[in-house]
Amino acid sequence: MTHLDAFSLGNRPVRRMGYGAMQLAGKGVFGPPKDRAAAITVLREAVASGVNHIDTSDFYGPHITNQIIREALHPYPRDLVIVTKVGASRGPNASWLPALEPEDIQRGVHDNLRNLGLDALEVVNMRMMGDIHAPSEGSIEKQVTALAELQRQGLVRHVGLSNVTSTQIKQAQRLTPIVCVQNHYNVVHREDDALVDDLARQGIAYVPFFPLGGFTPIQSSALSKVAASLGATPMLIALAWLLKRSPNILLIPGTSSLGHLRENLDADKLELKGSVLAELNAIAGGQS
């Protein structure tokens, strides 16, 4: 892998094109998938294609996604880095509930360990609830301290953050090293532009969630125009733009489709240059 193909996640080099496992659970990231065998096939294909960074959480399902990962891939390849997160739980009606007390964080780490079949978790993101998909200011000292204690116990090797502000990142860094930040970011949702660059200067990975728009796919006439000119899908262009945006960006697009997985993995083969890149750079704030 060259420096353009990979970036450090903790002390492990990972390919910049990873895989997000959220969609392996049922509808609404709740309950079992319609086709468990198909989910296993997608995971195995991803790893066989060179993916060595999988993003997950035990509150996907809950528990189900991690159990599928274990069934598909355990014993895990030596170069595979599984990144998980704590900070939420699921209600019986599929609601997303905050789980931000120290005992919640401890329980979340142990749930991930058990269902993934691991003795230690490589990276755990402290997922703050904020405004669900956008961060809000406020102290995160209690949560990061609880996760850092589990790190000292050897159950967590590296700590990351999710859905946080620059101020919260600085607060967390006074408590423990932070190896990655996972926030909402894509070609039309650009509030974190300055943060991406700041983290790059620090050698910290930035991992966009919803790189393709999440539950509401990206809608942009400018993006569609560029895609048509290059004979590619808008989603492939959106991923390629993120890879071009900054070398510290690691992608974790999720899918339960083998076809979409293969398409996503082609994003790093797409060249974006000159006027095409300028057109994409000009898309911001959901503008068309």
SSE-based structural type? alpha/beta
What is the CATH class name?
Alpha Beta
Question: End-to-end distance, in Å?
Answer: 36 Å
Rounded mean pLDDT is 93
> How much beta, percentage-wise?
15-25%
Number of domains: 1
The strand order across the widest sheet is 3-4-5-8-9-10-11
Largest sheet: 7 strands, parallel
Number of strands: 11
**What name is given to the CATH topology?**
TIM Barrel
Cα Rg: 18 Å
Oligomer: single chain
CATH homologous superfamily annotation:
NADP-dependent oxidoreductase domain
Helix content: 25-40%
Number of helices: 10
Question: How do the helices and strands line up, and which of them pair or pack?
Answer:
Blueprint: E1 6-9, E2 12-15, E3 19-20, H1 36-48, E4 53-55, H2 64-73, E5 81-86, E6 88-90, E7 96-98, H3 102-116, E8 121-127, H4 141-152, E9 156-162, H5 166-173, E10 178-182, H6 193-202, E11 205-206, H7 221-230, H8 234-245, H9 258-264, H10 274-281
Parallel strand pairs: 3-4, 4-5, 5-8, 8-9, 9-10, 10-11
Antiparallel strand pairs: 1-2, 6-7
Helix pairs in contact: 1-2, 3-4, 7-8
Provide a descriptive summary of the structure in words.
The chain is α/β, with parallel strands linked by helices. It has one domain: Alpha-Beta Barrel (TIM Barrel). 36% of the residues lie in helices and 16% in strands. The protein has 10 helices and 11 strands. It has helices spanning 36-48, 64-73, 102-116, 141-152, 166-173, 193-202, 221-230, 234-245, 258-264, 274-281; strands spanning 6-9, 12-15, 19-20, 53-55, 81-86, 88-90, 96-98, 121-127, 156-162, 178-182, 205-206. Strands 3-4-5-8-9-10-11 form a 7-stranded parallel beta sheet, with helices on one face. A two-stranded antiparallel ribbon has the order 1-2. A two-stranded antiparallel ribbon has the order 6-7. Strand 1 and strand 2 form a beta hairpin. The protein is globular.
